[in-house]
Amino acid sequence: MKTIIEPFRIKMVEPIRLTTIEERQAILRAAHFNPFLIPAEHVLIDLLTDSGTAAMSSEQWAGMLRGDESYAGAKSWYRLEETIQRITGMPHVLPTHQGRASERILFELLGGPGKVVPNNNHFDTTRANVEHSGAEAVELVIDAGKDPQNRHPFKGNLDIGKLERLIGEVGAARIPVVMVTVTNNSGGGQPVSLENLRAVRAVCDRHGLPFFLDACRFAENACFIKMREPGQQDHSVRDIVREMFDLADGATISAKKDGLVNIGGLLLMRDDALATRANNLLILTEGFITYGGLAGRDLEAMAQGFEEVLDEHYLEYRLRSVAYLGEGLQRAGVRIIEPPGGHAIYIDAAHFCEHLPVDQFPGQALLCELYRSGGIRAVEIGSVMFGHTDPATGTTIHPPMELVRLAIPRRVYTQSHIDYVIEAIAEIFPRRRAIRGLRITQAPPVLRHFTAQFAEV
Asked: Domain coordinates of the chain in residue numbers?
């Protein structure tokens, strides 16, 4: 296998502060065993998220200097609107400060008590915004998507049979929108096939339901389609992206992922009446319809980023470098979600910490050991993030998988940084049974993983 080379040159560097294990132990305790609460300056390799952590290009920085800061009708806005309409074909483009703002507007308009919103898997803020509206979020990913070792090429697919059954059980009138997340973040960064998106579209057409994409990582998903789906190898990523969006009635996008920017989001729609209502809410809560809570320089950076992310050389490097991390961990005996995802590697924390019961949060415990031993910050996607209490029975409902996500920021780390991560985790693995479980000492009722506090058991 040839060495993976970054398809860019480094023009600016940022120093990383080195810390000792003793220092990190004290920092971890001060943060109540929650890496979200650790100051970034104390983190050696930060894999907490790929959201808003990208390194921008020289063209993006040049665009920021050109940014038009007019309150209404800025040139930067029209450049962004034209770029997104050309890439996606969506007529209505609403700018927001990030993806969760787009979700909040959408579900304030479409959600509400008694409504049911199906998805392959909702991510944390999507689920929270659905439930905040009073609606119920339902997960319909295919069964292969719940099996870490299954190498199905499109484990993010929504199960069409489950969708039909849900419509039959609750009735189409209670389903305001069907969503599919591409790639499927909660399920391991796994892609969704065009065949599956076409099938979802067909179901929605039969029942008169709108179909929206959670399209934060649309370009990575399209690259997987080109690589894995029969008949797509000769199609460009740009053409595949267009077909994905042509199948949908709208989309929420955090530009902090495949937009290659540090802040920004979009809400895309075809329906004129819904777009008018969304515009009114946007003005109330985000800003005028031509800036949506963003500076003109941010709009310029977004427009350039959405063009750059469709570079197939970049996408091949991106997916290959993520797979390189996964392959290195597997050689060390660490079980991950297979095949490797597009933006992150997901460690099977239930297997890694098989000595810990699920109510001692094996994923969170592993997070803490990664930071303590190697200065690496990651995020738990398991019972801390998605566990909840059944209001009818009072029992705790745990998600199907306990995972630790190693999300790789775009264009930030080199291969030597990734080699360090592999080495650090490989050193922990043989002594993993010494990892101590955790209990929650304080947590908010919603999105608790961001600010929850823990103590060792």
From this structure: 21-50+311-456, 58-308
The angle formed by the CA atoms of residues 449, 265 and 290, to the nearest 5 degrees, is: 145
CATH code reported for the domain at 58-308: 3.40.640.10
Beta strand 178-181 pairing with 396-397? unpaired
A 10 A CB-CB count for 54 gives 22
The residue behind tokens 């705790």 is 396
Question: φ and ψ at 348, to 5 degrees?
Answer: -75, 95
| Angstrom distance (rounded) from CA 352 to CA 2 | 30
Average pLDDT in the 194-210 region? 98
Q: Which pair of tokens denotes residue 375?
A: 């200065």
Backbone angles phi, psi at 325, to 5 degrees: -65, -45
Domains 21-50+311-456 and 58-308 share a fold: no
Element (H, E) at 119: strand 116-119
DSSP 193-204: -HHHHHHHHHHH
Number of other CB atoms surrounding residue 20 within 10 Å: 9
- Calculate ∠ Cα 75-79-83, nearest 5°: 170
Contact 343, 407 (CB under 8 A): yes
Nearest alpha-carbon partner for 402 in 131, 186, 192, 190: 186
Domain formed by 21-50+311-456, architecture: Alpha-Beta Complex (3.90)
Tell me: the pLDDT tens digits for 242-297? 999 999 999 999 999 999 999 999 999 999 999 999 999 999 999 999 999 999 99
pLDDT above 90: percentage of residues in the chain: 94
Q: How many CB atoms lie within 10 A of CB 357?
A: 12
Strand locations in 349-448 (E):
376-377, 379-381, 388-389, 396-397, 403-407, 438-442
* Whole-number Å distance between alpha carbons of 324 and 217: 19
**Residues 309, 321, 406, 182, Cα dihedral to 10°:** 40
Residue 397, burial from CB neighbour count under 10 angstroms (0-12, 13-18, 19+): exposed
